[in-house]
Design goal:
This protein has 141 residues and is mainly α. The protein is 57% helix and 3% strand.
Length: 141
């Protein structure tokens, strides 16, 4: 293998990127590895390879599910909430931040599943009048 980061498209590397995304890793952290392409290369691969683009989309959706699972784990872990018999407000705030960050990301990655549900209610009487428009100079053909 030539020295440097890979830049030629590889199904194996593309699959590893997607697997690591689905496991919850960020693209940025994946691309920091010396044996991985840089982000620009990944974006070029996404534009050029439909199969990779589809695989990447599925990986991002799976990443949202992983983030959801992580939120539950973080919320359920109270092991460091108390230090020497007293609540540790710094740890509790950090835990809240970790959960909120994952919640936001999951909502962006899979908005239909994890996004905020927004309901629109319409009420009242609608009075719409549609006027006939005459097109000048236009023939039926």
């Amino acid at each position: 293998m030539p020295a440097g980061r890979p830049s030629d498209y590889s199904k194996d590397i593309a699959a590893e990127i997607c697997e690591r995304l689905a496991d919850g890793n960020s693209l940025r952290s994946i691309c920091r590895d010396d044996n991985m392409p840089d982000k620009g290369t990944v974006f070029r691969w996404l534009a050029a390879h439909e199969e990779f683009r589809d695989q990447y989309t599925c990986a991002r959706e799976a990443q949202a599910d992983t983030l959801f699972d992580e939120m539950l784990d973080i919320a359920d872990d109270a092991s460091k909430d108390v230090i020497e018999g007293a609540a540790d407000p710094e740890h509790i705030q950090r835990t809240k931040l970790r959960i909120e960050t994952r919640k936001w990301m999951a909502g962006k990655l899979r908005p239909k599943k994890y996004g905020d549900k927004i309901e629109h209610e319409h009420s009242g009487h609608l009075n719409h009048t549609v006027s006939k428009i005459e097109l000048v100079g236009v023939t039926p053909e």
